[in-house]
Automatic annotation (TrEMBL):
Region (Disordered): 42-67, 252-295
Any one GO MF annotation of this record: DNA binding
Protein name: HMG box domain-containing protein
Domain HMG box, first and last residues per copy: 67-135, 172-238
Alphabetized CDD domains for the sequence: HMG-box_ABF2_IXR1-like_rpt2
Location of the DNA-binding region in this protein: 67-135, 172-238
PANTHER family: HIGH MOBILITY GROUP PROTEIN DSP1, MITOCHONDRIAL TRANSCRIPTION FACTOR A, ISOFORM B
Amino acid sequence: MFSLKYFFERKYSIMQFNAMARLLHNSRLLISTRQTGAPFGNLQSSGLHSTASLNDDGTSNAMPEKPKRPVNAYIRFAQSIRSALATSNPKASPTEISKLAAVKWQTLDQASKAKLEDEYKREQAIWLQKNAKYLSQLTDAQKQELKTERQNRIEEKVKRDQKRLLKELGRPKRPLNSFFLFCAQHKPVQGLTKDENKEQMKKLGLQWKQLSGSEKERYVKEAETEMKRYQEEMKKWEDKMLASEHTEVVRKRNVLLPPTPASSRARKGQQSAVKNVTATASVKPNKPTSTTARP
């Protein structure tokens, strides 16, 4: 006969097992992907639904997956022949491969172009439906986040385009200051990681602070000489850019822009107001007439 203690211990073990089984088979169990240290953090591969953290009202903060936009007919064609072009032109750069693909596209027959265009239109129609559903699932905060990211991408693209244009137009490169001249001459190791380079620059900064005034003087003079040369080259380059109507790359303080109509009207309004004030001040006030009869 089993003892009473054994009976209750066995019953408790069975209860624990059943509770764990219900937990693992519950399809509504949501495990946060951010809790990597949780005991059940590795159960995602066993079929459990994974999501981001939940709000107090039970809604999820996870951004829904954005449908991928289909590429147009020309990009489809270029992607399909890029590998063959790279094989037949092993020394060509990616830019040159793109130019070769553009030439091939110009000579492609209309039937092949129409087929690629039809494929694009079919996928575009499907994407429009998926994208409409995706946008309807976004919260106001997520829409604002996407708007900010899109604006940042636009600003980064403008900066890259400006930098590339300045390089193509041959803008003089700004010289190093005295400290960075010292670092360039005393940097002991090349090809370091970001953290290693940061540590190395910190050490160079301490060495720079320990230098005497006379030791820093030669770096200061070299930096001043390079700056004067740079300023002369910049003046010549900006004069050349102004002559070639590339005013967008010239520093604003060196560009004399014509006044806009709005500024001209504002200036005229200010001038007329000054004239009115001057005219009013020049007019002598009349003596007040007394309404009291003389005795």
